[in-house]
Amino acid sequence: MIARGLDAYRSVDVDSAILSASSVELIVMLYDGAMTAIQRAKGEISQKNHAAKGALISRAVAIVAALRDALNEAQGGEIAVNLKDLYLYIEKALMEANLNNSSERLDECHRLLSELHEAWATLAKSDLARSTQAAKTDGTSTISYGKV
Predict the structure, then answer these.
(1) How far is CA 38 from CA 45, 75, 87, 111, in A?
(2) C-alpha 87: how far from its chain's center?
(3) Do the Cβ atoms of 89 and 97 come closer than 8 Å?
(4) How far apart are CA 27 and CA 96, in angstroms?
């Protein structure tokens, strides 16, 4: 019963974070989700729990595919094209890791996603700092209660 309550609380907390997040913060959350799935999949490899490992790697692949699909090559130019290629590489590496139970390939994918995560997290912090400074100068609040 307590566990169910904690799960419900976590779900509300995650839902609230998603509703109030900027697009940059949502991307950071997606990277977090993919990296968490990869780390958990490594644990399942060591426990020889192939079904759970496969489900977690599938989750990571789906997240990376969503990031790839969200790219706008017309607007993003060469950066978007390069990110697309990197995402495709990571997806392939994740599938190989799943097929071969390779913790090393998972480590590689985690490292690549971690570098991207760091860049996007820095961007999110600078966006937050800009919006906070703008609110101080124009008197508006930076607190969001969803769509109003």
Answers:
(1) 11, 30, 15, 10
(2) 12
(3) no
(4) 24
Q: How many CA atoms lie within 13 A of 13 on its CB side?
A: 6
Looking at the domain that runs over 23-129, which CATH code has it been given?
1.20.120.340
Q: Which two tokens stand for residue 108?
A: 């590689």
Spell out the domain ranges in the chain: 23-129
- The Cβ of residue 105 has, within 10 Å, a number of other Cβ atoms equal to 21
Encoded tokens for 123: 């961007």
For range 50-69, the mean pLDDT: 97
List own/partner pairs for 90-94 with CB under 8 A and 24 or more apart.
90/64, 91/61, 91/64, 91/65, 94/38, 94/57, 94/60, 94/61, 94/64
Enter the pTM of the model: 0.76
What does the alpha-carbon distance between residue 133 and residue 148 come to, in Å, rounded to a whole number? Answer: 22
| Per-residue pLDDT tens over the stretch 9-48 | 454 455 555 565 788 899 999 999 999 999 999 999 999 9
CA distance linking residue 114 with residue 134, whole number of Å: 30
